[in-house]
Amino acid sequence: MLERTKNIKGRGAQKNVHNRFLQDTHETRSDFLEYCHKEGEEADKNKTQYINTFPKTIVNKVQSPDVGMEYSLNPYQGCEHGCIYCYARVTHEYWGFSAGLDFERKILVKRNAAELLEEKIKKKNWQACPIILSGNTDCYQPVEKELEITRSLLKVFLKYKHPVGIITKNALILRDLDLLKELAKDNLVSVNISITSLSEETRRVLEPRTATIKKRLETVQTLAENGIPVNVMLAPIIPSINSHEILPMAKKVAELGATSIGYTIVRLNGAIGEIFSDWIHKTMPDKAEKVLNQIASCHGGTLNDSRYGNRMRGEGKIAEQIHNLIKLARLKYFKNKKTPKLNRTLHEKYKSGQYSLF
């Protein structure tokens, strides 16, 4: 049984950590907390703030050689899902915020995302290449239900017959099933659903504001039944938290129609090491040191591993065991399954927004 002693309800991180790019620090003093207690006031209202931004570009060239994508697009920066392990937390520091609570509570919204995408893929020198939604933060996080920025992006991809990949852990993607089915007719879309556990209790502590495991499994099944290729990311694998679930998870998603699985071993880059360590000592105090030591054993003795090729696959005995379990799962449950490559051939004819006769 997981022991939960969190202070801040519905959040992954339990504090803000110092932004490495800023000289000044922010500290919540004990005398201030005492004052709030005596006055019956809330020291922290724990509200999410949405900040409108209007970038000049939206499609990012991915330079990292080991992430499996060439271009990404993120309609939101920061993510209210609050996954404690999320590697994208450190990118919030570039915006002047903390990788801790700020990442979950200060969400940057790119209102002009669809216009920028359309402008990009209509350029004469642009050659169709799959653009991945959510290379950094989830494009179907809670605010998408109201803003529908991701839906507007899918309409652009469909209009110009351009290939698109999606990474999400939110069942909200099924709202856009009509567009996904149209894209799938021409093999223009694939979806990656992230499933970290089959245990709802584990999900709640690792990913507090994500869709339930039941809904995510139903999402895999619904997408597959509608002819949309689904890869399931068993990610991240965290030793002694979900590493024992690899085979059961693989079996379940294969039965529901997933065409493949991928995985990563958790890596606590930058400020995430401090955030995760604080979280696990409050959430799972009895096993905190065991988990942290096992994570470190997968990354050369440190929680922070940025080496390309090693950072997501790990090394050492535990990493080797995880790799062998994934290999066995693929052999046992996905032997005759294959995810088709996305179609790059149609876009050139549709760059004007309509089919060319010549």
Automatic annotation (TrEMBL):
InterPro entries for the chain: Elp3/MiaA/NifB-like_rSAM, MJ0683-like, rSAM, rSAM_sf
Native organism: Kordia antarctica
Xref: SUPFAM superfamilies: Radical SAM enzymes
NCBIfam families: rSAM_PA0069
Gene3D superfamilies: 3.80.30.30
Radical SAM core domain sequence ranges: 65-299
Segment forming the signal sequence: none
Keyword field: Iron, Iron-sulfur, Metal-binding
Molecular function terms from GO: catalytic activity; iron-sulfur cluster binding; metal ion binding
One family name in Pfam for this protein: Radical_SAM
Protein's name in the database: Radical SAM core domain-containing protein
